[in-house]
Automatic annotation (TrEMBL):
It comes from the Bacteria. Keywords: DNA-binding, Transcription, Transcription regulation. It comes from Pseudosulfitobacter pseudonitzschiae. This is Putative HTH-type transcriptional regulator YahB. Residues 12-62 form the HTH lysR-type domain. InterPro entries: LTTR (IPR050176), LysR_HTH_N (IPR000847), LysR_subst-bd (IPR005119), WH-like_DNA-bd_sf (IPR036388), WH_DNA-bd_sf (IPR036390).
Length: 294
């Protein structure tokens, strides 16, 4: 005779599957490691199948566990919908984690939050700009506004705008440059090697092959600062460069990037996530022409 199935053990199963260790899963759930371990063992006993293979490096889903993931995620989504329906009369409440690029967050998205939060006093928005470490499939964030379209995971993806880029320099640098044709004699601001896959970095590599950069940086903010200091030309988003008073070199770069709204598909029914997602879409669309640039 198998043990009775306890539905409360499903969140522990999902957390361990997503994080890979009992310690990380316990932290995500706000529970003790022993509690999470006990819930996994109880669930395996009730189902009569091993859900995880234990190893020194962590927990790996078995084939049986992998097959149950969609069902467990559907239960999680149903519980979210149930909770949202219960809270509908009290307005949108809860914590929403948004992942995005710093160049969109600081000048555009964060300043736009005031009316959203005023309309929903029970809502908290956490903004993460450390996009490299964000994994929506593991629920590091609830939704993302990003320039790279993800190709894996149980995600819903929507194109919501375009971020245009140009080649810019400070007024003093541009005055000294005169009416130069091509880039011979120009200085430029490069990207650190680990960012070599960025379209801007690749464009610079193609067009300044024989020239070393005047300075190399690892953030867009420092690229902008270096250009403002007159250290050379930089590939920058039009709206940031123009707000900073930089001047554009009249050349088409072909490195514009689409802006994507990305959500974990199971959160589509979540009212708190949906209201933040709709707000982000509205902000990007309202600033569409500014973001695209000339």
């Amino acid at each position: 005779m198998t043990d009775p199935l306890n539905w409360d053990d499903t969140p522990a199963f999902l957390a361990v599957a997503r994080w890979g260790t009992l310690t990380a899963a316990a932290e995500a759930l706000g529970a003790g490691v022993a509690t999470v371990s006990r819930r996994i063992e109880r669930l395996e006993a009730a189902l009569g199948v091993p859900l995880f293979a234990r190893a020194q490096t962590g927990y790996q889903l078995t084939d049986e566990g992998m097959a149950l993931m969609p069902r467990a995620e559907a239960m999680e989504a149903a519980m979210d919908a149930f909770r949202n329906a219960a809270q509908a009369g009290r307005g949108v409440q809860g914590h929403v984690r948004l992942a995005t690029a710093e160049n969109l967050a600081n000048p555009l998205l964060i300043p736009s939050l005031a009316p959203l939060l005023a309309a929903h006093p029970g809502l908290t928005v956490e903004v993460s700009t450390d996009v490299a470490s964000v994994n929506l499939h593991k629920r590091d964030a609830d939704l993302a506004v990003r320039m790279v379209r993800p190709t894996r995971g149980h995600l819903t993806v929507r194109r919501i705008g375009t971020l245009g880029f140009g080649l810019y320099g400070a007024a003093g640098y541009m005055a000294g440059r005169g009416r130069a044709v091509g880039f011979e004699g120009d200085s430029y601001i490069g990207w650190a090697e680990r960012f070599g896959d960025l379209p801007a970095a690749q464009w610079l590599a193609r067009n300044f092959r024989a020239v070393a950069p005047a300075v190399v940086t690892s953030t867009l903010a420092s690229q902008l600062s270096a250009a403002q200091a007159g250290l050379g030309l930089a590939v920058l988003p039009h709206f940031l460069a123009q707000d900073a008073g930089l001047q554009r070199v009249p050349v088409e770069l072909g490195v514009d990037q689409d802006i994507w709204l990305v959500m974990h598909s199971d959160l589509m029914a979540s009212q708190r996530v949906r209201v933040v997602a709709d707000h982000m879409v509205g902000v990007i669309e309202a600033h569409g022409a500014r973001l695209r640039g000339p």
